[in-house]
Amino acid sequence: MDLNVLILPGDGIGTEVTREAVRVLRHVAGKFNHGLHLSEGLLGGIAIHRTGSPFPGETAALAANADATLMGAVGLPEFDSAPPSKRPEAGLLGIRKALGVFANLRPVRTYKALIDSSPLKNHLVEGTDMIIVRELTGGIYYGTPRGVSGEGAEERAVNTMAYTRPEIERVTRMAFQLARGRRKKVTSVDKSNVLENSQLWRKVVLEVAHEFPDVVLDHLLVDNCAMQLVLNPRRFDVVVTENMFGDILSDEGAVLAGSIGMLPSASIGNRKESGAWAGLYEPVHGSAPDIAGQNKANPLGAIGSVAAMLEYSFGLTEEAAAVNKAMEIVLDSGRVTADLKPSGTPATTEQVGQAVCEAI
Ligand code: NAD
Question: For residue 128, how far is its CA from the centre of ligand 1 (angstroms)?
């Protein structure tokens, strides 16, 4: 298969972890005989320095032509007091919008070697393996009317949680398709006992479910879901929910796994002409200026994002499983960065990348 991938290393540790993720991607492509075509672009602080814009037109064109985009992280302290449109983070919103990625996927799995760093008891968290699918471009973060009006006792603020049927259908279909490649279970999360918006959500999810008779569907109210995530995380396979509920639940899910440096994410849009799903893959963490340039950032979130790319954009499940398995082997071997190793000599970012390649 030909894999056309745009690399956007970004700022700070983004460049360091991306280098290792690319090392792993090259290794997998070689080992499984895929053609790998990489392009590289500017995003974030480095893009502002070189072009004046956090999301230059040239990067937008490269992203449009690539099947998938692998991103590091953006953000430089020198821009902390700049207006929002002139900050590196504006590049992130720009590329998400340009790619039309409407679903954010956060795989949450626990690794045996890290189980003690989870805040939950081992027996609760062991074996957790789920994906939270969050609708990314609709809901209360975008709905209108919105704003603040009035003054004094009359001052009021309004936000609107709005969804159209097609917006719910496409993200629900994606969740069901993902479930088909996994344990065939979808949990839809809403607040349909209170919100009309959630009643539409549930109605549409039920309709879409008819297209996937091989997948089991259940529904949870968001408050109960928040509770079940910590009481019984193993019960979940694919969780699908609207934007704000997903924002909150995916962070709750994230802490199950241990270090922030471990967490991959994927944002997915429509299918490209090539048949691949347009996707933006990035670790959950930021540019970590406090450890940038020291070769000590954990690259596993970025490497896990490569596994997600192979699976979701290209449907290469065997290759994705090889990367995930290799990460597990490396974790078990103790060749891990300082964030996962409170005592003893930690491995460098580069050593972890090399170790993952060896394990593959
Ligand atoms: P951060 O995720 O960069 O760092 C938080 C803490 O976690 C730091 O102590 C850091 O050293 C540690 N950490 C993060 N990733 C790590 C890794 N891979 N290995 C080891 N330790 C790791 O969050 P922050 O400090 O709030 O933000 C720093 C900058 O990153 C800001 O400019 C922020 O806007 C930006 N940011 C960007 C993204 C993104 O590009 N997607 C996401 C979050 C924050």
Answer: 25
